[in-house]
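Title: Prediction job returns without error message
Component: structure pipeline
Severity: low
Priority: P3
Assignee: unassigned

Description:
Job completed but the reporter wants confirmation the result is attached to the right record. Sequence as submitted:
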Amino acid sequence: MTENIRTISIDMDKKCTHCGKGGACQNGLCLECISQKLKEKYAMTIGPITISKMEAEVHALFEEYANDINDAYLKAGDDPLTISVGFKLSPKDQGIEIETSISFTKERIKDKTKSFANEDQGNLFDKNE
């Protein structure tokens, strides 16, 4: 029975098509560039750090406007009070820029905050990797 064994061949005389260093594999990339592309492909972009930051930002806005929300609720009487919360996530060099907004009617309160989250900020890679 013939086994299908996958192999990676490294030609030390062949230059990497991405970085130009010697030691390219069959696909034209060196192992370092292949590793970087795998990290990029399988990196978690929106993960627990980003979600936690979003939760903290909206919590802070509710804390800041708690009295105003209460006043608007009382002013609404029998009508419902609508509170809108929104998030705008933008890619930036330092990670994901998170713009958190809150809007409700008292005297037309509308506010937003900005912060950053980076899912890689908690990862410590072995220097030998």
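Comment from assignee: result matches the submitted record. Residues 11-42 form one domain.
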